[in-house]
Each structure stands twice: as structure tokens, then as C-alpha cells.
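> forwarded from #structure-qc
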């Protein structure tokens, strides 16, 4: 994993991939699957996430204020679904799904070695009525050597689209030249 500026987090999340969220609560690492997220601001990079109060991850995030958003690729599809169908209350998911926790730099939650990108995040605000966490991306790590780079996009009920063709219209983005590249 190579660190790149956290200002590039939007490039990873704006396309709306399914992500994994890691936490570390009372010394125990955990991971969940999350589809309900969105970029809110470029700088500093802010991300909105809805995490249900019934999840172990909700309690961990409330308790620690820290997490990592990890971006899996299509080789991890089966694990992504199964991680989202069991709880850290009863399962050591890193062990069960053969994931490699790697130390993050700014937060106690681990990076996931098998993922394309990892974003270290800190909670900066919450909206309790919607179980909405506003996270600030503090560090961004990317595995540039990874061969499989296609992300997963959840269409609901376990149906996914794999990331596909790229259409480059960057020459037309004349109003947005000041944004991070
Ligand atoms: C494809 C998929 C997307 C999901 N998206 C979310 C989500 O956005 N927010 C959420 O709270 N739970 C979501 N879940 C459910 C959690 O991942 C699930 O409740 C998980 O068991 C929580 O794990 P934990 O108790 O270890 O935190 C999703 C599950 C799947 C399979």
C-alpha cells in the first residue's frame, strides 16, 4: 500500500463502490459491508455514511470515532456479501474471511491488505435521527500493484455490477480546474 494525498478520496468514492468499514473497539478489530455512503466535500474531504444502530460497527464508531473505509474489488465479492451478513458480536471476521489487517497510521482501525484502497477516517459529526456519520478522510492508501482493479456496485439484494469502461470527458470539465486532480 502506498500513501497518496487524502484529497484524492473522492476519486475512490464518488463512483459509489460497495465498501468495507473496519473498526477497532476495545482492542478487537471488525469489518462490515456498506453501500450507503457519499462524498460531501472535497477539502477537507468529508464522507457521509449510514450505519445501522443494530451493527457492532455502529457501537465501535460511536465509541472510538475512528474507522477505515476499504475498497474491495470483484475477486472479494463473496466475502463482501458474507461480511455483511454476520456480526462482529459473534464472529472474528478477519479470521473467517482470510483478511489481513495492516496497521493504519492515524487511527486504531486496521487497513485491509486485500483491498484496492484504504481510507483512514475520523468522525467529525453525527446526525442521530438517520444514523448518519460524517467522516473526514485523513489518509489514503492505494495498492497500485494490484492487477484486479474492478470495483463492485450494489444494485440491491445481492446483485452487483462490476466497474466497466471509462469515458474520458475531462477536457470538458472547464468549470472545475481548481479541484484536486
Ligand atoms: C451489499 C451490502 C450492503 C450493506 N450496506 C450497509 C449500509 O450501508 N449500512 C449498514 O448499516 N449496513 C449495511 N449492510 C449490512 C451490514 O454490513 C451488516 O448489518 C453487518 O452484519 C454489520 O456487521 P457488524 O455487526 O459486525 O458491524 C450491508 C450489507 C450488504 C451485504
Amino acid at each position: 500500500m502506498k500513501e497518496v494525498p487524502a484529497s484524492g478520496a473522492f476519486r475512490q468514492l464518488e463512483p459509489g463502490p460497495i465498501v468495507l468499514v473496519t473498526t477497532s473497539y476495545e482492542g478487537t478489530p471488525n469489518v462490515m459491508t456498506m453501500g450507503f455512503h457519499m462524498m460531501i466535500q472535497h477539502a477537507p474531504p468529508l464522507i457521509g455514511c449510514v450505519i445501522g444502530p443494530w451493527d457492532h460497527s455502529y457501537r465501535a464508531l460511536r465509541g472510538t470515532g475512528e474507522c477505515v473505509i476499504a475498497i474491495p474489488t470483484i475477486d472479494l465479492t463473496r466475502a463482501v456479501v458474507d461480511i455483511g451478513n454476520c456480526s462482529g458480536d459473534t464472529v472474528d471476521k478477519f479470521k473467517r474471511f482470510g483478511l489481513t489487517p495492516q496497521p493504519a497510521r492515524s487511527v486504531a482501525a486496521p487497513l485491509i491488505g486485500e483491498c484496492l484502497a484504504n481510507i483512514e477516517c475520523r468522525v467529525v459529526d453525527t446526525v442521530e435521527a438517520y444514523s448518519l456519520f460524517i467522516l473526514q478522510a485523513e489518509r489514503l492508501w492505494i495498492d497500485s500493484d494490484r492487477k484486479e482493479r474492478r470495483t463492485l456496485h450494489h444494485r440491491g439484494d445481492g446483485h452487483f455490477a462490476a466497474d466497466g469502461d471509462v469515458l474520458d470527458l475531462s477536457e470538458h470539465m472547464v468549470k472545475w480546474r481548481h479541484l484536486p486532480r
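QC bot note: The two ends are 20 Å apart (CA to CA). The first helix runs from residue 9 to 13.
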